[in-house]
Fold Redox-sensing transcriptional repressor Rex.
Amino acid sequence: MKTQTIPRATAKRLPLYYRYLRVLLDSGKTKVSSTELSEAVKVDSATIRRDFSYFGELGKRGYGYDVESLLEFFGKILTEDRLTNVALIGVGNLGNALLNYGFHQGNNIRISAAFDVKEDLVGRIVEGIPVYPMSDMVEQIKQQQIEIAIMTVPSSAAQDVANQLIEAGVRGIMNFTPVRLTTPKHVQVQSVNLTHELQTLIYFLNHYGEDQSTTN
């Protein structure tokens, strides 16, 4: 694989490609073209070819891409071959919904520990996940060697919780609060702001014609 930085937009599309390749393999398809992929995942074929080019020569001109080989390649890129344990910080309405989503039932991603300040939640097993007190968070994350955390805490506590996660050795935070977190360069933050996403959707609805569409 080429040793260069992969754009974030490309990295965000890799799981999309992986999921569709899995569907193709399960249906018995052995090869696929960038045009076929484009029609399925709603990403233009030029973008797909450019995304794939960051990883070297993955296909053959006039043949397309070998589905099984491509699936195996992206599976390794996305570490589908090893289990990733995740901590959930905050078991409120959103946190509880994430537990019910079934991350722990996935092949390679599992919420293995949850943390909250509410006494009626601490010590319980919610959707098969133990809920620990916030006071135990740093110790438990270190002990379980968790490197990724999902944060669904009140905005007022966001930066303090992030600081504790960094102290515990977490290298990636999915931040569901509207707070822009300050973290060291080695800690990646992926912010998910549902209000902003809805505002963006409303903007596109109001400014694009019915015959136009946008795809992330």
